[in-house]
Design a protein that fits this description.
Layout (H helix, E strand, L loop, with lengths): L2 E3 L6 E3 L1 E4 L10 H13 L4 E3 L8 H10 L8 E6 L14 H15 L4 E6 L8 H13 L3 E7 L3 H14 L3 E5 L13 H8 L2 E4 L40 H8 L1 H8 L3 H10 L4 E6 L4 H8 L8 H11 L24
């Protein structure tokens, strides 16, 4: 497993991070979750990403139990705050109240006294940014979070947050956007600003929710047991990708991967990791062997000819529109996806 510094900070993360995004009614068992975490550790993955909202807080609990007994100093545990975690009016957003209460809940569920990176899951236009960043500063100074990051913020929001973090002298080191060879939205605006400010990307959905594994073929017959056939495990997230035009283009990656002795999934992950502003890519799994296979991509380096072949295969269906950065409104259900 390869490793990289997160932004200009001293924090080192594994090139692949294990993510345990679970839906509210996920069919994944506790036994499977533990097996996937063990496979990640065995593959050299030390970075683990979750969020308080995943599975209505159960994902943090599951991850905490799976990591119990591991040397805490050898792990990087990342979680997020913003989305609703209760029925009250103050149970969501980035107010001082919600941030301070949420971190304590996350630490309790994860079984630790600190997280290595605490991330704003979305931007909150209903709370003054100064209040949000001051609340994050309080957590850093209290030792509950070592570093601060964000997820799906626009370039302007990142620039404003970074300026305040600099005034408050707290480490604002990362953004977590959706990014893959099919979803290239951050490239035009977000990544250049982050590079300028010394921040890295921790990307989610680097395999486009499994589409870039090549297992979904044109024609609409999905593999049994896949996410596309499981309404409890995020099949709605896949809807935009599961059409013959996209899937036909993804099939063109097969010969490219075969020529390098890689799977399509490994090729797609290596493509993401090739971007110099990407510190780590978050991968999930429904089976531990998926983690083992995907981990091999962390050390792959693709030459210019291969990168050009991937771009040519997917260019007509890849989204590059910077305006497609996730809507930051709390009313938007999109926060559930990252």
């Amino acid at each position: 497993m390869d490793f990289r510094h997160l932004g200009r900070s001293g924090l080192v993360v594994s090139r692949l991070a294990y993510g345990n995004w679970l839906t509210r009614s996920s069919s994944r068992s506790e036994e499977t979750e533990t097996a996937c975490v063990r496979a990640a550790l065995d593959a050299g993955i030390t970075t683990f990403d979750t969020a308080d909202v995943y599975a209505d807080t159960r994902a943090e609990e599951s991850l905490g139990r799976a990591l119990k007994g591991e040397r805490r100093e050898g792990l990087e545990i990342l979680t997020k705050v913003f989305a609703p975690t209760g029925p009250g009016r103050n149970d969501m957003g980035l107010s001082r109240k919600h941030i301070r209460e949420s971190i304590d809940g996350s630490l309790r569920r994860l079984g630790t006294d600190h997280v290595d990176l605490y991330q704003a899951h979305r931007f909150d236009p209903s709370t003054p940014l100064e209040e949000t960043m001051e609340a994050f500063a309080d957590l850093v100074h209290a030792g509950k979070a070592h570093y601060i990051g964000v997820s799906e913020w626009t370039a302007d929001q990142i620039r404003r947050g970074h300026a305040l973090a600099r005034e408050l002298r707290i480490p604002f080191v990362s953004n977590q956007p959706q990014y893959s060879a099919l979803w290239r939205v951050p490239e035009a605006e977000v990544m250049p600003v982050c590079e300028e400010l010394g921040m890295s990307q921790i990307v989610w959905s680097p395999l486009a929710q499994g589409v870039l594994t090549g297992k979904y073929l044109p024609g609409g017959q999905w593999p049994a047991g896949s996410r596309a056939t499981d309404s409890n495990d995020g099949s709605s997230v896949l809807a935009g990708w599961l059409n013959d035009e996209v899937l036909g283009r993804v099939r063109r990656l097969g010969p490219v991967a075969d020529g390098l002795g890689l799977t399509v999934a490994q090729l797609s992950l290596a493509w993401v990791l090739q971007h110099r502003n990407v510190a780590t890519a978050v991968v999930g799994a429904s089976r531990p062997e998926q983690i083992t296979d995907n981990a091999e991509a962390a050390d792959v380096r693709l030459d210019e000819e291969t990168m050009a072949a991937i771009d040519a295969a997917l260019a007509p269906v890849a989204n590059r529109d910077p305006a497609a950065t996730a809507d930051s409104s709390p009313a938007d259900p999109g926060w559930r996806l990252g």
